[in-house]
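[job 4471] stage=fold_predict status=RUNNING
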Amino acid sequence: MGPLKGLKILEFAGLGPAPFCAMLLSDMGASVIRIDRPGVSYLPVDVEARGRHSLTLNLKEAVGVEAAKSLISEADMLIEGYRPGVMERLGLGPETALELNPSIVYGRMTGWGQTGPLAHKAGHDLNYLAMTGGLHALGVRERPVVPLNLIADFGGGSLYLGMGMLAAHLSVKNGGSGQVVDCAMTEGVLSMLSMIYGDFVDGRWLDSRESNVIDGAAPFYNVYQCADGLWLAVGAIEPAFWHAFLRGLGKTEDPLLKEQWPRKQWAQQREYLAKIISRQTRCYWLSIFDELDACVSPVLSLEEAMGAAQHKARASFVEHQGVVQPAPAPRFSLTPGKIAEGQVLPNLAEALILWQSPV
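[job 4471] inference complete, writing structure tokens
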């Protein structure tokens, strides 16, 4: 049932990183009850909603609020992703929750955090990423790129909230009191940028796009288009991998590629390598680099990734309720995670019974 078997989590339904965090904890064995608004329903393709039990409550009515308080009294953790002040106005804020349940871990997910001049401003992944310096660093020299909402929402948000809540719960288990975990997506991203900021302060990171080893400037850490329009990802940073890459290209003695690190020749090297790789199909190059340890990989489409041999070998995709989707991660040797079979709970009494005898 997963390493979090027996952990009881109350989730207030929202969007984006808060439900994804709840999904991850459910995959690891926690019993999660999600409070849904009247009229809300989910389909199997709503993968981020998987693995939870659902209880419909109208939190605008006193009876709904009282029911939520009953669940708070029994929960180990609470997850909410509303703007600052919303839970307080409902009468379900941290002060109330900790009074009802002094050991509860109260997880709060926002873009900007609970305080500060932007705390009440709306935003999305792109806005939060933009304020960290991360978006400035992503893209080509002429402009930043719009990335998927993996960085601020799920990286800086979901993963940091989950880590923080589990750390706070461990503190409770060690004799501490319940507490609030204030997770700001911006601060999660800033934390993930720690190495980059360290290099920047030290002068090793140039504050402009396509100027550094891992931002698209280096020829040995880049993507190249093949003759069939498909792409190769080359991550041959270390000299051994760079030499193996050149061996696969048949260019080990090429004078233009002999020196790997002088930045002044990177642009010329990139252009030269692009011409070489564009002469053959991706399949051709993979037939060569499959035999070499050169950090060369195909840039797979979503459909291709679902059928990749590596993912098949590890069952990295599973089918749940007729929908193929990523399997729970990470892996545990003794208590493997699993997608739970959530159920719609008809009333509060059934929800409390479920937690008293978690499946």
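[job 4471] summary: The mean pLDDT is 97.
[job 4471] exit 0
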